[in-house]
Amino acid sequence: MRVEAVPELKVKIGLEVHCQLTDLKSKLFCSCSADYRGSEPNTHICPVCMGLPGTLPVLNRKAVEDAIMIALALNMKVSSRTLFYRKNYFYPDMPKNFQISQYDRAGGVPIAKDGYVTLDGGRKIRISRLQLEEDPGKLVYEGTIETSRATLVDYNRAGVALAEIVTEPDITSPREARIFLQKLRSILEHLGVSSGELEGSMRCDANISIEGGTRVEVKNISSFKEVERALNFEMTRQRNLLRKGLRVGRETRHWDELRRVTVTLRVKEEEEDYRYFPEPDLVPILISEEDVERLRASMPELPDSRKRRLMEQYGISMQNAEVLTDNKALAEFFEACAADYGRPDLLSNWIVGDLLSYLYDMGLELRETKLTPGHMVGILRLIDDGTISGKIGKEVLKEIIITGEAPENIVKARGLVRISDREYLERLTERVFEENPKAVSDALKDEKAIRFLVGQLMKLTDGKADPQLANILVTNRLKALAGKG
Amino acid sequence: MFHMPGILELPASEIVRRVKLQEISVEEYIGECFERIRTVDPKIHAFLTLTEDDAMVRAREIDIRTRRGEKVGSLAGVAVAVKDNICTMGVRTTCASKMLERFVPTYDATVIERLKAQDAVIVGKTNMDEFAMGSSTEQSAFGPTINPYDLERVPGGSSGGSAASVASFEATVSLGSDTGGSARCPASFCGVVGLKPTYGLVSRYGLIAFANSLEQISPIGRRVADVATVMDCISGHDSRDSTSVKTGPTSLRSHLIEDVSGIRVGVPKELFGEGTDEVVSKSVWDALKRLEGLGATCEEVSLKSLKYALASYYIISMSEASSNLARYDGLRYGFRLEDEDWDWSEAFSRNRREGFGPEVKRRIMLGTYALSAGYYNQYYLKAQKVRTLIRQELSRVFKVFNILASPTMPILPFKLGEKLRDPLEMYMCDFDTVTANLAGIPAISIPCSTYRGLPIGIQFMAPPFREDLLIRVSYTLEKSLRLDLRPAV
Amino acid sequence: MSGRIITSEEVRRLAWLSKIKISKNEERRYLEEMGEILEYFKMLDEVDTEGVEPTYHVIELVNVTREDVAQQTSSNSLLEIVPVMKGRYVKAPRII
Fold this sequence. Notes:
The complex is a heterotrimer of chains A (485), B (489) and C (96).
Chain A: E1 11-20, E2 59-60, H1 61-73, E3 77-78, E4 81-82, E5 85-88, E6 98-101, E7 112-118, E8 124-134, E9 138-141, E10 150-154, E11 161-167, H2 174-191, E12 202-210, E13 216-221, H3 224-243, E14 252-256, E15 261-264, E16 277-278, E17 285-286, H4 289-297, H5 303-314, H6 318-325, H7 328-338, H8 344-362, H9 373-384, H10 390-403, H11 407-413, H12 422-435, H13 437-445, H14 450-460, H15 467-484
Parallel strand pairs in A: 13-14
Antiparallel strand pairs in A: 1-11, 1-12, 3-7, 4-17, 5-6, 5-16, 7-8, 8-11, 9-10, 12-13, 14-15
Chain B: H1 12-20, H2 26-44, E1 47-50, H3 52-67, E2 79-83, H4 110-117, E3 121-126, H5 160-167, E4 173-178, H6 184-189, E5 193-196, E6 216-221, H7 224-234, E7 264-268, H8 278-293, E8 297-301, H9 309-324, H10 344-355, H11 358-371, H12 377-400, E9 403-407, H13 423-427, H14 434-439, E10 443-451, E11 454-461, H15 467-481
Parallel strand pairs in B: 2-3, 2-4, 7-8, 7-9
Antiparallel strand pairs in B: 1-3, 4-6, 5-6, 5-10, 9-11, 10-11
Helix pairs in contact in B: 2-3, 9-11, 9-12
Chain C: H1 8-17, H2 24-41, E1 65-66, H3 76-80, E2 85-86, E3 89-93
Antiparallel strand pairs in C: 2-3
């Protein structure tokens, strides 16, 4: 278990998150299909997104609407007038060698500014700006980036719409960074604009400084798990430098996922200068209050509202509600089950406790499993009517996650039906007592030691014995022995 | 001048009329054009690429349709030369640069689609200054174009090939582009008519960008009527160009009226300043006096901001160019050196060093400078603010005058090589024309006289979307002048 | 000497930023030519632009957008003009 950072260590983390607007059918500035995952390289391209000479961008209206909704969900102020800017730099993944983006200086106004996200527990992380921009293409190396003799470029992703969300350096630990990102992802999923599950749909760069010192930028972080790892590493690295009396250099570092270290990006001869200026081929976007209100009214339920509703409607605990709404798929799963099952509090415990921990252990997302709400409810009903024990229920759940078999079938096939045959169990109890004389004498002296004996009985039955009955039988037998002796 | 079939002298509208009546065959007519090109172009080098096979196929096809009594378009049979920075599907489009020497677009520019839809016949792609950067068509990677009126002089630029091809009767009309005067300048030097439309009136989709906020595709013809005819075909909203104004095509032909009574013409002092040849000045004033005789009033006016137009124009255009030309790195199309074992940055730098000519590189460097941190405010931002002042001053003056007049070029066509030593000297040629691009207003150049055989052009400028005034005034002047210009080829 | 308004170092940096390789000779020539041109541009310093908004677009258009509809065109003709490919990838020089 990772040890939390020393509490006195003052850490400031800011994140720059790039979220693909995966609900869009076309790219930001052209009509290419944005659904490129799984396609052959360089099939989702056209003269516009390839930056061919003479081509011009045309803005996707829905991208603007999505951005406004994100701004509202993040409590931001939507700008009444916004412009696109060119960010000029060369790189093989950039078809035009400039990116059409937005800017917040030199007269530029991004689509929204100054909002916040409230984490569970009440901490507010401020969001400084939200802007729309286009994704570059993807680079593939023959080998590693260092050893590759050539670079292969796939422009399928070039031009896909991104919402860039930038926080103030309000985040105080790597763990909090991960929590923030999960919350952000849940919000975007609930809005329906971005599906965080899709590979590469949410990427982030981080800035971290400790003890009020130099800010280091960390790039190339591919997933939320990696964010926490990268920032933990970097935090430790910086702390070690300070301990040795060395200075932390202001630089950009690259997270190496395989070696689990941040490395200095090769020292460039020169520093980039992006030479931002307004994009001449695109005209300003004016957003009226009516536009904003119309979109606000059409917004779907967001995680925080859903959390409150789940608590009210189903009477589940706040902790459970928080975990459930942290992930849209999970919350929906819960509600689908709850529609069909009369004990939502129990259900939520199963989902939040058991299901989630199994998914985590197996490294799976809910959608990657074969588990349906019907299955979940089925298990709980089998437990409720005594066919199986809770413990067996957990086993069945684990299996359904992988096989998708109906619970009744599994129970039947593996013979997991709860054993309530009293005679049979009494015979087994006898055997347990015979095989464990020391435990028996312990239990006679100390009541609590009875648990071992009950455990042995459960073991003999592969956990299928009715636990209550097992308890009664063992207790009775002990009483009988006590009475005798 | 060599004997030339009379058919080549016909205006566009007359060609179309006779084609529709089957009085001439398009195949014959286009055939004559190519004969003319074969005779003349070795001397003037207006064309970089000829599309003879395609053109003849189209020509025959139009003839078949007219014979069958089918409807044909408003430009049926008209021979069009297209500046080589306008994309033509399947036809090499080079921008007169080594960088795009073998680039074949997979799409037509919107204007090309519209011309084809009206049965125009494209005969070839014309020479220009590389990436439209120049005022003499000497800065082409494939050799200069020569002025048909004097084979030792430049035709103007950057649309020199387009103007020369029309002036020498190789084509009926042509398309040029105008970023700072690039269509009007060669029109003036070659004794033809060139119109820069109001910004946003003609789609830029397919125009290979030099300076996006300044440029427009511009029709060039021997007569005002021809320019109006082409404008009516190519103008109008295009959803592929976000800066395209939401209006339909123009009907400029309806303004081919001889009537300037009551037109108030303002004549900016600043555009007749030092650096303007006396001969040019006199020619233009003579033309203005003629207009007065026809019922217009001409009055001098001072527009102080125009003094700064050239600097403002060059800073803005170079800045935009430095960004627009960044895409040329050899990866996805265009010139690519044999990949020795360089990293991408080195490879790009060597590619661009080889692919671009000196003027292009100079402007990219200057544009990069003007946008860079520490200089952005002093150059790019400042130039854009000065641009606002120029627009405001023009706005004020157009409340008093209907149109403005000036020389198109401050000087007569100069000799080849004369202005190549000093870039700034070449830039100064644009002094009279850049104002219209900065303000986005329409401007036209028509020939108003010659001096020792060299054409001189007069320029008119009008408020946004008032091409009708330009057409009317220049048509009236043209009819009155009755110039019969004959090139030396 | 125009070295005042722009320096050799700046010229080299511009060449790096714009990815155009220049020789020492060219560096000297650019220094001179650019210097002369920048001197001319300085005349804008005398214009009072206090409170003046820049003109980024000369037209009054706003809110030009298109519907979110995917119309995928075939990519093969685009790939035919790519100078160097590997399979369906565009081949670029190494990064490092």
